[in-house]
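Suppose a colleague, Dr. K., hands you the sequence of a protein chain of 694 amino acids and asks what its three-dimensional shape might be. Before reaching for any lab equipment, you can write down a predicted structure in token form. Begin with the sequence itself:
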Amino acid sequence: MSAEAPKSDAPSRRRGRPRLDLRRLGRAALLGPTARDRLSDAISHVAEAHRAHHPDADLAVLHKAYVLAESSHRGQFRKSGEPYITHPLAVTLILAELGAETTTLTASLLHDTVEDTDVTLEQVRAEFGEEVCYLVDGVTKLEKVDYGAAAEPETFRKMLVATGSDVRVMSIKLADRLHNMRTLGVMRPEKQARIARVTRDVLIPLAERLGVQALKTELEDLVFAILHPDEYERTRALIADNPDACDALDAIAERVRAVLREAGIPSEVLIRPRHFVSVHRIRLKRGELRGTDFGRLLVLVAEDADCYAVLGELHTCFTPLISEFKDFIAAPKFNLYQSLHTAVAGPEGAVAEVLIRTHQMHKVAEAGVIALGNPYAAATEGTEASGAADTQQADGERADPTRPGWLSRLLAWQESAPDPDTFWTSLQADLAEDREITVFRTDGGALGLPEAASCVDAAYAQYGESAHACIGARVNGRLVTLSTQLGDGDTVQLLLAQDAASGPSSDWLDHARTPAARIAITKWLAEHPEGAKPPASAPRAPAAVFAGRRTAANAVTDLPHAPVRLAGCCTPVPPDAVTGFPVRGGTVTVHRAECPAVARMRALGREPVGVRWGDASECRVTLVVESFGRTRLLADLTEVIAMADAAIVSAVVEPPSEQRVRHTYTLQLPDAAGLSVLMRAMRDVAGVYDVSRA
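The predicted structure, expressed as tokens, is then:
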């Protein structure tokens, strides 16, 4: 899994941390197993880092895994000349420093044995158990002999499916790629660039989504150095030319410590230098950099409440930049990240960005899912994760609390992408969406979607391929088109057609942001080419139908012998509360009491006339029907109207707009009491979502 060789000038995010001495470990590895009473020098680095996070860890299984890895890789060398065992040792050390538990480290030591040696999965299972075997199998590459050009995308598909059951698979893969990127120097430039691009497009977004910032930031710097060498060198020189850049931060940090001591808040205030890519982004954003732009302040406290106490003290004693405030404690990011972000101005106007979090939040911010340990271990205080039994769901499946929503969606749509090229391009597009929103269904459930997702995406996320029949949606109670973008916290109700033959329009692809939606729509359009024909570009003229003549109104006014006319704007019918206003010629126009025209006439000083309904029950009413376009819709509506013994005085059907059709009917009813029954019957017509009075 790693033919790469060390690169001496690779940038390191952790300045000052001793780097693994590969040559010394190589010599130690060549000496073979050590005495039973002590660990090999080669594995002692891993043991020391592991014990720092897990003081009671049993190191015997690590020693056993190292012996198998060293013996099976003996005689194999990296392109740089070091013994191959130095690679799994370095990968395991990376994970140990991040706090990975023993099972992960055991699998990491063995992660290349099945791929590159004669060791089999059955042997790993027999000696180390099912979990270690699953992790090793998850990170084992597929053979190019069997898959050809599809080997890389299919290997990633295999790893992601395995990650869906155990996120530790991807933890090992990320650490493996980090060491390979650190040691990429002897590769041909074109191969370096290819590996760096895959790292940029797939591995770095995965590290971000799993919350492993410590790996993500260093991978970003390494990719930056390979793909943008000129910009990287300019940034490196900028940092080197400003060795005292953080002096301004030192002064602010000292004042922050004094403020928090005086407030009685136990805390630790640190200066966090920015990594290369972060400095580059700040330079592009702000132009000339100030001293405080080369780093940020990190305040660590014990409890969540202390975070807000620190925030209050900083905003009281310093001038805060409110626009920079973000609360990721109350609303954590989808990758588990929690912290308070703010920015304050120092004594001389220098602005310092400040991160406030607890020690546990900081551990998770750096190591993400790795910091959560074994997701299947029993939650027993003081029990080493690797030795605990698996927890089971009621249905017998393993319950993984670290499996995030985006991973569930990814696992769902990848099943519909059998073509490796479709999977690979869809995966990169999905991972490029680095922000997530939550929308709520009307049944109380929730959907996790990428930022700027539309109702089309929500439909396929909720209904799968049944969303082909989606004809509209209500967002926060309002009827909207399927192209409407959703916001965080919106409530969405998807409306499905009763016609099973309904299908998506090719226009839906313009609004679909998720691979699941795009793959399903593309597949349906390919299977139904006749359904992909675009509608005629010229809109149809409104169709109008007129029948009969207007009859006398059955309203009686307080003005004797005055002609009465029912207002066309609100078409009142018994038993509506009504009022009237005289117009030219002495005619009294009758409006419903809540009609907006009544308020306008009163504002103009027009005096109303009392109106009451007479004995006649016949009435005229105008109804507006909102529906989704389909064949036979007009015929079905007119049939319902005819069955109610209503006469159509006039009908207007407006041209369809985004699959929505608006009908306006003026009807003469023999009895006003039948109006509500007619409106209910019209709402029951397939495709109709609303019927209202004009």
